[in-house]
Protein: Transporter substrate-binding domain-containing protein
Organism: Marinomonas vulgaris
Amino acid sequence: MRADLVVAAFCWFILWPKVAAADTSIETLSTMTVRVCGNSAYPPVSWVNADQQADGVNVAVIKMLLEPLGVTVDTHQDSSWRRCLKEVELGNIDMMSGFKTEARQAFMTFLDAPVIRESIYLYFPIDNPLEFKGWDTLAGLRVGVLRGDSFGDEVDAALNAYPTLEYVSTQDQNLLKLADNRLDMVPMGKLSGQLDILRLGLQGKTGHIQTDVVDFWYLAISNRSPLLPWLPFLNERLTRLLDSPETVPELVERYRRIYIAALGLNGDFSD
C-alpha cells in the first residue's frame, strides 16, 4: 500500500470515533463559521486581494459549497502560504485548497473531487531560455521556490536535492530576481505566472516552457476542524457542484477578469 494512503488511513482511524459521535445535522452546520486561507501566488485560482481576503476560483467553490447551507465563510488572510499551511495544521484554519501531498495528508483531509487542473511551467530570463528534459537535468541552475509550495512528492524530492534552491516568501521576489538574471528558473502555474508578470510590468523580460507536472487542486479540511464530521456530505455535495463541465472554466475566466480589473491592467498576453 502507498505510504500516503497508509498515513491517510491512520489519521482517519484516529479521528473516526470523534467524527462518528458528532452531530452532523444541517442545522448544526448552518451555525458554523468556517475559516479559509489559500496560496497568494496563483491567480486566478488562488490569491489574497488588497482587502486581505483569500480570493479566486477555489474560494468561490468553497463559498458555493457552504454558503447555501447557512455557513459563514471567513476568508480574512494576512499570512503567507507557508503560515496558512501551519494554521491548518494547528486547527486555526478550517479549509484550504492545494495539491494533494503525503506531508499535507498527515494533518488535513482532502475532499474527493478535484477542483481544477494545473499545469506547471518553468519561467526563465528571456535571454537565457531553457529546455525541459526532466527535473534532474536542471540541478545546476539557480531555482526560486515559494515557501510552502509543492509540485507533487516526486518533483519536491528532486527540487530538494538541488544545491542552489532559493526559498522566498512571495512569488514577486522570485519573478523580480528572475527578470534581473539573479535566478535561472521559477516553477509555477502558467496562467498565474502570466498574470503576475503582467502585474509587475515584466513583459518581455521572461519566457516560459511547460514541464511534465500536471496536478489538481483539491479542497481540504483540517483534521482539527469541527467541520470534519460533515466530510461525507460535503464530498457528495462537491461532486454534484462540479458535475457541470462549464462550472470551473466559467469561474476561471470570471476571476481572471476580476484580478486584472482590480489591478487596472490590460489583460492581453500571449501563449
The radius of gyration is 19 Å. Residues 8 and 105 are 6 Å apart (CA to CA).
